[in-house]
Amino acid sequence: MQPRFHPGDVLRAADLNAIVDQFMGLAATGGGPTISVNCGNGDTIGRALERALPGTTIQATGTCNETVRISKDDITLDGQGSTRINGGGGEQAAVVVDGARRVTLQRLTAGNGFDGVLVQRGATVIMSSVQAEDNAARGINIQDNAAAQLTDCSALRNGDDGIAVTRHSGAIFRGTIISNDSGGRAGTTSNDGIVIGTNSLAFFDTGAVVTANHNGRVGTVGGRGLSIAGTSHASFSAGSRVTTSDNDLDGIRVADSSSLPATDTAPFTTSGNGDRGVEVVHASSFFLLRSTLMATDNGSDGIGVLQSSVLRLNDAPAPLTTRGNGSRGVTVTDTSTLVLSNSRLDTTNNTGDGIGVFGSSRLSFSTGSTVFGEMNTHGVNLGDASSINAASGTTLTLLNNRRDGLILQRAAGAF
């Protein structure tokens, strides 16, 4: 039965899953024949695919020195936990799913290709326990109106982005997702751990655990942990958890009219990144509902909200914390907005201000909100016709800062 919605309805995770599953056509047909491939004995997955019928399961073992192209619907490729597909170091992906629907890839490693796994041109794929490592470009690349569900997958030491969902594509992430140590390919423009870009969609399902660390540290092009850009959308649901640490640029970046809502998640943790812990820029939004984050020990700001963007924190179960960052705890600038509703913001021990608001930007604190700033340069620094709006019942505590607790300059105002 198709789901139906009306104005004012609440879109639940189960509803979204039903819509996406129906759109993607992910359900496998099952019940077909099984073909066994022993690459150690000279068998190849390619020859097995030539004779495979819809519903066929190919069970592979050993190291398969070939590039695999799947263009038939309803195929399952099962590496049984020990198969490595070695792409040979050329210009082809180790595994390509080209336009085929309801394909399953499971329990295998894809390495030494241009990409590890490439899903393209309207293909739909379920990936489970797939590891993409040591590829020249991207580890897992979903592009050109393709869609995938990834469960317990990882991308390690790839030359470009670890996991990319781009060009009008979509992905559901479940279980444990790891994308570490991307970077190093000559001529690349991005070394991000996970990138959702160019009108694409990502949904991180209940309980997903996402780690994107140490990306962009190799080579001359920096990398971010998690990047949502190009009018794209990523959402995190209940119990999901995100860690982005020690990336060359930002830990998390939301850019170019993109959005990142998170509801009932575990705290986002972003630490030790070379630039900002979190950057929301170019008319983008980051909305934390009954969720929070910790941005600590980053090279620049803990959080930057820039160029007509919005960060909103509602009913946070624990303080949003910025601590020990190389510049400000929070920067809000260029007609941007930071909104706290029944939540707490702690900014401590930052090299610059606890909170800096400039360029006709705005802080808004509703009833029940608390702001605490200690051992920063200024506790709160407002300038350039910016404003702070604090409702009755808001608490603002600024202690032991190196200069002023609250400074208003250049036509700034507090109301």
Helix/strand structural class: mainly beta
What's the number of helices? 2
Name the beta content range.
35-45%
Uncertain stretches = 1-11
Backbone shape: elongated
Radius of gyration: 23 Å
- Main sheet record: 27 strands, parallel
Number of E-state strands:
41
Through-space gap between termini: 52 Å
Q: Helicity, in percent?
A: under 10%
Mean pLDDT: 93
What does this 3D model show about the protein?
- The chain has 2 helices and 41 strands.
- By secondary structure, the protein is mainly beta.
- The model is unreliable at 1-11 (pLDDT under 50).
SSE blueprint and pairings:
Elements: H1 13-24, E1 34-38, H2 45-51, E2 57-61, E3 63-65, E4 68-70, E5 76-86, E6 95-98, E7 103-111, E8 117-120, E9 124-133, E10 140-143, E11 147-151, E12 154-156, E13 163-166, E14 170-174, E15 176-180, E16 194-197, E17 201-204, E18 209-211, E19 226-229, E20 233-236, E21 241-245, E22 252-255, E23 259-263, E24 268-271, E25 278-281, E26 285-289, E27 293-296, E28 303-306, E29 310-314, E30 320-323, E31 330-333, E32 337-341, E33 344-348, E34 355-357, E35 362-365, E36 370-374, E37 380-382, E38 387-390, E39 395-399, E40 406-408, E41 413-414
Parallel strand pairs: 1-2, 2-5, 3-5, 4-6, 5-7, 6-8, 7-9, 8-10, 9-11, 9-12, 10-13, 11-14, 12-15, 13-16, 14-17, 15-18, 16-19, 17-20, 18-21, 19-22, 20-23, 21-24, 22-25, 23-26, 24-27, 25-28, 26-29, 27-30, 28-31, 29-32, 30-33, 31-34, 32-35, 33-36, 34-37, 35-38, 36-39, 37-40, 38-41
